[in-house]
Specification:
By secondary structure, this protein is an all-alpha fold. This is Peptidylprolyl isomerase. It comes from Jejudonia soesokkakensis.
């Protein structure tokens, strides 16, 4: 009887521990650049009817923008000239990548969505 009780207790502790780990993973995953980019690409695709190549290029552009923003801009003083310069460079590069990926017509439509 004692062994059965010990086994049940161990199983419950392990089960409870794995549930906590899974909950942390879900919270952490929602903040990843890839997850954010996929959501944005799906929203844009629904409105602009993108093909596969355009989706992939747009996905890469969004991920790159998010990563660069986090590395060079987020958490830093917004009034600092270096931060302003970095933010402008990131935004210009992002728009150029989107324009290249979407083409002229869809780029204009994308700008209207912004």
């Amino acid at each position: 009887m004692k062994n059965l009780l010990k086994i049940i207790t161990v199983v419950l502790v392990v089960f409870a521990g794995t549930q906590g780990i899974k909950a942390q993973e879900l919270k952490k995953d929602a903040d990843r650049p890839e997850v954010i980019a996929k959501t944005q690409v799906n929203e844009i695709d629904a409105k602009l009817d993108l093909n596969g190549d355009q989706e992939r290029a747009l996905f890469r552009a969004i991920v790159s923008k998010i990563v660069n923003d986090r590395k060079l801009v987020d958490g830093k003083d917004a009034n600092d000239p270096t931060v302003k310069t970095n933010k402008a460079k990131i935004e210009d590069g992002y728009k150029a990548a989107v324009k290249k990926a979407l083409g002229e017509e869809k780029y204009k439509a994308w700008l209207k969505l912004q």
